[in-house]
Amino acid sequence: MKKIIVAGAGHGGIAAAYNLAKKGYDVTVYDRVQKEEDLGHEWQDFFHKDALTDSGFPACEVGMVHRVPISFYGPDKDVPPIGQTVKDDEFEMHMYRKDLYAHILKYSKEAGVKFVFGCSIKKPLMLGNRVVGFETSDGEKVIGDLVIDACGINSPLRTQLPSYLGVQNKFLRGETIFVYRAYYNRLKKFPEIPNDYHVYFLNDGKDGMGWIVTNEDSVDVLIGKPSPFTKEEALSELERYDEFAPHRGKKVLLGGGIYEIPVRQPLAIMVADGYAAVGDSAAMTVPIVGSGIANTLKAGKMLADAVLADKNGEYSASTLYNYEAAYYKQLGSSLAMVDLIKILLQNLTLEDLRLFFASGVVTSEDLSFNSNEASLSTIFANIKPSDVVDRFKKVGKNKALFKKVLTLIKNIAILRRIMLTMPKKYNEKSLAAFADRYNKFFASLVK
Predict the structure, then answer these.
(1) Would residue 82 count as lying in a domain?
(2) pTM, whole model, 2 decimals?
(3) pLDDT at position 412, please?
(4) Neighbour count for residue 228 (Cβ, 10 Å)
(5) Of 307, 332, 357, which one is at a domain's C-terminal end?
(6) Are the beta carbons of 114 and 28 closer than 8 angstroms?
(7) Residues 254, 317: one domain?
């Protein structure tokens, strides 16, 4: 029987393991945490209600909520926020990471997936051009017929693969975000403050953003920046948000750490002989917000389907590429386009942000897309053709911003042409040429 080893207990790796184990494959997941209860960040996430079932798992009985609208605030406090429009029939899952892990681990173990904890992965093991396993920090060599890399953003496998495989090793500045996230106690002396979700752009785009989510008994705070920062700097920055959240207490209930999250386009090449990256290892988040649970779970199912279709058990770049092609067709191409919006946001000045929020260039209808809609067509679906000229006139009042919007339109056209060169079937030379154009294009936009 072919042996599948999953490096890291990321959601996508577990989804792949679960779907393969159900078909009788020998699958083992290795992770550095000491026990399964240690898996998962101490925070909640919103994700599309169908993500679990779309990835092959049974639905979860808890966590379903009516979609929470987000209000976006600009740098001027006296300017009203732009709030999302949410329909009555829109629902999402809202779960703590640990509860989500408990759900998918339960069914994975029932399907036959084995888990090894306390295993710190050091580097990949190669045999010629093929990835055949990994070495642990204890010097143990773990060998398999296929290595699924679910180790995360700084995977010790992906970051150390030979360059000739074409898998991008390092992410660039601006392609990841560092976040401080913590749940504080909610002060009961402010009962009039409703439960809600606020995102703040208090600085220019290069200095990041933050959010305050008011829950029944807690206040969820996030501060995100494109460069590393200390906890002391985060707490100092947090004081700026107190005028928006006077109900935030000082006691940390959960979290309180600083984490790095990918907010970029997916990898141009995510497979090699004996190797496939999934989840944060392959940058499978929505670039603007960093949410990746739904994408990652679905990608795990796509990867399992490609493995199951490989009847000869080659698990080569050629057979595994069917997984990458499926991901790009369903999600990846759209997410790459959305990354261009993120790049625009990163280059906005305070003056640009003020115009966006005060002029009506962006409306609540524009922001009505949900967590399962990650494409330019859905983001801009509510903009009427008759409004385009009017909005361009508003943007045109700021020549620098007008130039940035025109650059965005040009970049969308360039990326569309590049995506047309991505081979539908595996061809090493064609894929390498596509990856070279794709990576150079995005690198040219990083400042």
Answers:
(1) no
(2) 0.93
(3) 93
(4) 10
(5) 332
(6) yes
(7) no
